Amino acid sequence: MEVNNQADADNAENGVNKQPEELHVQVESGSAPADVEVKKRRFKHKKMVLIIAVTALVFGSGSAAATYFITRNGNSSNSSEQLAVSDANIPSVALDAKSVLELSGKIAGSYTWLDTPKQVEKLPLFKNPEGNPETDVEFQVVSSSDYYLIGSGNDGSEIYVVAGPDEPGGRPYNVVIKRDNQYSIIKNHSGSYFYSTVEGGPKDYHGPELLSGVTVDPTSTIPDMSVPEEITFKGQKFSTKYPTSSEPTYMMFMSKLPENSEFLNYQESGKINEGTIYESISKDDASYRVSSFELRIKPPFYMTLYLKGELSNQQIDPIVWNDGSKNSIDYQSAGRGCGSGNRNEIAKFGKDQLVQIGKSEKGQIIYGFKDTSNILLIKHHDEYIDDSKNIDQWIGGEETVYKKANFGLDINAYNALRPLYLVEDGIGRMLVFSRQDLVVVGGCAKPVIYAYPTVPTLIDVTVGADVTVSDPLYESGWMNVLAMPNGLLGYNGRQYDSLFWEGYGYGEYPEIHEGIVVERNSAEDTLRMQLAQLGLNEKETSDFMGFWAAKIPNTPYVRLTWLGTNDMERLAPLYVSPAPDTRIRVFLDMEGLETYQQMQPQRLTSTPRRGFTVVEWGGLVTDGSVPLLR
After folding, report:
1. 205 CB contacts (<8 Å, ≥6 apart)?
2. Residue 6, pLDDT above cutoff 70
3. CA angle 160, 165, 166 (to 5 degrees)
């Protein structure tokens, strides 16, 4: 169910690096290394969450061309300061995608799929990267990939998957067909190596250099991997693609079947023509559960399913209340993350505890609570009271979303505000919707972009999100930003040390099923160690800890889980032109725990920085199954 909250998150302080008052810069231009980093696809519980992200851009060098000056005002205390540039005609460093041989092939009439993917030796697809294996990005991409045989065709062809390291949102992958001893990457079923450097642009190949004879098939599709955009299960319609996305349906590769854990429980719900439906349950309480559905197909892939219906994808639900008034407030069912999600809160009691409080435009009955003794209403009211304790912090002097008078009310006054409504879906479940201006929420807040080129370079930056707050003003993106080697950024005649935005990501927050649980008193040291393992430098680590150290939950134990580039590109894709050679996006999901819990450990690795590099960090704090802004 789509969740697009309109609340603004809290602004965080935006510091300015101290720089000399005048900088004399030699501008260089020339060829730059080809773009080889694997960019993944882009991408809620009751509360949306805060992303705090920092992005660093590092450019390659070239040959001498011209000289420029930057002058700053020494008296400014604001994050933005005057910038004067002697000539705006700065050359951009162009980074082209690799040229590949495209050749459409023939797909077999039928395929036999393995129940479990069979890991095989490295396939002869890529040239052996040259250079230092510790610093060469292409070497890292190739050496960190695993190869799996997943099926064979009735024409003797074989289907393989080349999969990158596991991430909470799934393994990045590409599908390869072997036919007559020739290999071809099937573009329509591959995501990791094919992407656009500008929103809506063509998806070029950005993977490792291919061996001679290895081709890219730009048109073929495998019928068993082609799922319609809409399916029906037990009378309920589902979409197989994200509701507001123009991207095709995205599937996750299963190198092994998902296992139940303390955080997720998978239950088979039934079979349809396209495959098997599973319910993924992340919270199971006495009064409700939080879950989503996924479809597992014959090949070892699965996809998220999104509820379709009159109230599923509305910003303001079309409801007429019993008193004759029309609804004008945003309600959301359960979701998780700063992006929109697919999880729903499901009541675990019958209609005997409910009463009709309205109708939708198409006649669906809208239910409320018969009285204030309902355990689900009490649960929501308890969380609301917790939020009320910090409402001044969230309002910040501006009641644009939250009204202070609406907080701190007793349960009777709270219920009179219609904080929740329930509606029956096609399967017969009672979906719970929460009134969003009574829930302390936030979106993707304060992603901060730093730029450190070795040559002055004009860059364009856009994000896959609804930007609500920005500095400088985002409008439709930041275009023609002058990035200088010392980290200064010039935009519209003013000087910044960063670009910052808040908003709501277009994508889905991944499931959390791995990480590490540590004692609270060792969490800070563990984070510093992990940041080093992830490849953040001293300044990036200092900035991260400066913000997040004070927000480590004050509980006996803390869970630390890292999302990677693949997850972040699904959640809130970042488009930078010229295209970067290397993308490093890390995001911390942190949860306070009262007792120790065993988790599947993560493998944290760093990506070598080569040429034009993008580095982003972010994070959130969750409380049980519900992310909280802290």
Report:
1. 97, 98, 100, 193, 194, 216
2. no
3. 100
**Interacting residues of 184 by C-beta distance below 8 A, sequence separation 6+:** 103, 105, 176, 177, 214, 215, 216, 217
The percentage of residues in the chain with a pLDDT greater than 90, rounded to a whole number, is 31
Mean pLDDT, rounded, for 593-611: 84
- Contact criterion met (CB below 8 Å) for 333 and 3: yes
Encoded amino acid at 561, one letter:
T
| Residues 360, 371 contacting (CB under 8 angstroms) | no
* CA distances, 355 to each of 13, 288, 367, 418 (Å): 47, 18, 5, 12
Question: Is 442 in contact with 9 (CB distance < 8 Å)?
Answer: yes
Question: Kind and range of the H or E element at 138?
Answer: helix 137-143
With a CB cutoff of 8 Å and minimum separation 6, the contacts of 614 are 55, 56, 57, 574, 576, 580, 582, 583, 584, 585
d(CA 95, CA 612): 9
Total-model pTM: 0.66
Kindly compute the dihedral angle of the four CA atoms of residues 585, 590, 596, 597, in this order, to the nearest 10 degrees.
-50
pLDDT reading at 47 higher than 60 = no
pLDDT category of residue 68 using cuts at 50, 70 and 90: very low
Spatial distance between the Cα atoms of 283 and 547, rounded to a whole number of angstroms: 29
Cis? peptide before 129, omega within 30° of 0: no
Is residue 616 exposed (0-12), middle (13-18) or buried (19+ Cβ within 10 Å)?
Answer: buried
190-227 pLDDT, tens digit per residue, is 977 887 766 667 888 888 889 999 999 999 999 999 99
C-alpha distance across the termini of the chain, in Å: 25
E-strand stretches of 386-496: 420-424, 430-435, 447-452, 457-463, 465-471, 478-483, 489-491, 494-496
- Residue written as tokens 């591959």? 190
Residue 581 near residue 33 (C-beta atoms within 8 A) = yes
**Residues composing the chain:** 630
- What are the domain boundaries of the chain? 22-43+50-95+448-628, 111-224
Q: Is 521 helix (H, G, I), strand (E, B) or coil?
A: helix
Question: Which pLDDT score, from 0 to 100, does residue 78 have?
Answer: 33
Q: How many CB atoms lie within 10 A of CB 247?
A: 15
Count other C-beta atoms under 10 Å from residue 226's C-beta. Answer: 13
Question: What percent of the chain is predicted at pLDDT more than 70?
Answer: 71
**C-beta atoms surrounding 203 within 10 Å:** 16
How much is the CA Rg of the chain, to the nearest whole Å? 25
Nearest to 578 by CA among 59, 137, 194: 59
Q: How far are the Cα atoms of 94, 137, 236, 366 from residue 424, in angstroms, in the given order?
A: 54, 51, 11, 8
Distance between CA atoms of residues 512 and 392, nearest Å: 31
223's CB contacts (< 8 A; 6+ apart) are: 107
- Position 274 scores a pLDDT of 92
What SS3 state is found at 194? strand
Contact 502, 466 (CB under 8 A): no
